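Escalated from tier 1: zinc ion holo job.
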Amino acid sequence: MTATAITNIGELVTNDPEAADLLGVVADAAVVVEGATVAWVGPAAAAPPADQQVDAGGRAVIPGFVDSHSHLVFAGDRAAEFAARMSGEPYAAGGIRRTVAATRAATDEQLTSQVARLVAEMRRQGTTTVEIKSGYGLTAHDEARSLAVARQFTVETTYLGAHVVPDGTTPEEYVALVTGPMLEACAPYARWIDAFCETGAFDADQSRAVLTAGAAAGLRGRLHANQLGPGPGVRLACDLGLTAVDHCTYLSDDDVSALADSGTIATLLAGVEFSTRQPYPDARRLIDAGALVALASDCNPGSCFTSSLPFCVALAVREMRMTPAEALYAATAGGAAALDRDDVGSLLPGKRADLVLLDAPTYVHLAYRPGVPLVAQTWVSGRPV
Ligand SMILES: [Zn+2]
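Tier 2 regenerated the structure:
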């Protein structure tokens, strides 16, 4: 097997849990990659011989971003809705229905090429693992084909039939469909099940019914909760022992305690607050309480159409009181934890060789230079992409 050494790395972020600092930073470092796997990391002067060398030119190398929350399978565009919102109209969950109509009308080929375009856009910004949800089909057929499209790009696929109740059906009828025939059609293409637990979408009992049915079908649970206002979703997620609960914008002290006392990851989606002009979640409060935090994009056509985790890192630092180190950790190791993955999110021997070379001397530039394209090269499973 060919070994490639990436040498002359000015600053290497490993996320080594044994390190004294959060990010396990190694100065003047090298990484040796064999096939798809990291074989060695450490000081460049101690690097073992390799067949090929890549000179990082003194720049920083970080683990690839792990984006644990996205909605890439959709058709249509909601730029007009965004413009209206920026002119003063409030965000409401109902806009999802416009995307549903466009998605149902699109062919499988159109949906596949849209996802391919967005995944390529993510890779150019350093994302090497992405979770993709359904949720714009809302019929058994359209949810299953959305997941089949997503499956072509990632193993981290999430069945989100419980996104919003479609027109022409009652909530009771729709939950019966989501937990019955639609679940049966979707389960073969999904690893996860999710629900939008929010006023105007699904209440706690309905969300619990969806997650429980998913678990019985072998799917693992995650939840959209406490995005638009206070609610029972975060405590439901902690009670059920879900891997992650996402948004967490409006939290009571009880919600924060529940997160701190559970292993459930709080995934913060700062791009949504940016794009909807809502108050940002208080990451500092969560971290100081001992909760585990991830950052993800929530890339979707309605509430947040960014695919950029560097942008989300910058927002988290500026608007959510995270340090640059905490924000990078949350967007890499945090995202991996939110997907229950131990092979990605860190650069250590045996991990998948997902690396990002930054055009910067330090990862701090991700927040220090917002909006600047800093990703010089991305490798996924040891291959430059
Ligand atoms: Zn979402």
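The chain has two domains: 3-64+345-384, 66-338.
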